Amino acid sequence: MTTQYGSSLRYAVILTCCGLLLVAQVVAASATLQLRDRQPVRRARYVMGTIFEITAYGAAREETVRAIEQSFAAIRRADETLSHYRAESDLMRLNGSASQGAVTVGPDLYRVLEEALRFARLSEGAFDVTVGPLVRLWSEAAERERAPSEQEILEARRRVGSAKVKLLPERQVRFAQEGLEITLGAIGKGWAVDQAVAVLKRRGVRHAFVSAGTSTVFALGDDGSGDGWEVSVRNPIEGDPLATFRIRDQAVSTSAVYERFWEIAGNRFGHILDPRSGQPAAGMLSATVVAPTATAADALSTAAYVMGVEQGSALLRSLNLEGLLAPFPGPGSPESRIIHSPATSALEASSSR
Q: How many Cβ atoms are within 10 Å of 313's Cβ, its own excluded?
């Protein structure tokens, strides 16, 4: 499955709604019963090359429907800004001109770039939105059925590096390298989800679930249980759940490559590249991250996948985030690693190998 924003690089995050759970406070229990008496409004739209779905509870159905439609409008605006496949998008205009001089961009693109560069620094380059030249190299290699040479990878890597993107005052952006190309596939859907959630909140919706394809989700409030929304991450090989999270006002994103790969001379190479080496990231089955925003979860799941179990775990712990890092099973491979928050844990079930 090929999509604009790389949802094929992720595997299914499955939403399951459980029955009413016990709650400690009478006020919370009362609110939950009222919520469960309402029928949720569900809508889905094809945007950014994948299916976005919004499920929301509201006091008035018509108002909830309008809030959802406005949320989809925000997602479409994000696509028009961040798309790498729309020639007229803000991102493509930037890619076409920023090597020649500073380009003034809109506030949304500037903010996404600020976030992208922050995650690049936090991950020490494992997450990098300037990986475009390497993606292009491996795609062309698959077409000619010959793996790229070390020299070709080296040449492409010279045009990669977030430090070469200069964010200037007055929302100006300049590339310090000819041929540099930004692609926001590892952060764009998360940003779009956050924009949709912001609209729902402004319209007074307090309980909703927003999903971008099957890779990145945000849970607002709860599902009628009084205790958030339940999200299960499945094992793409065996089909059973790797872990279950119960989240409230949080996002979950999972990165994996089992559906999306390049096939060259009978060998399969995953589509998540390590920008530091220019090679496909290897050794990981999946990386799942729970974060306060979908933008952060989207970017950091990619970073953790590239970094692997040990370094990825250290990154999440340094940020006080939860997650599940699962390597490919096999002789000598490390165990799956569950990263708990020292405060309250969203994780309900342990992983399975």
A: 18
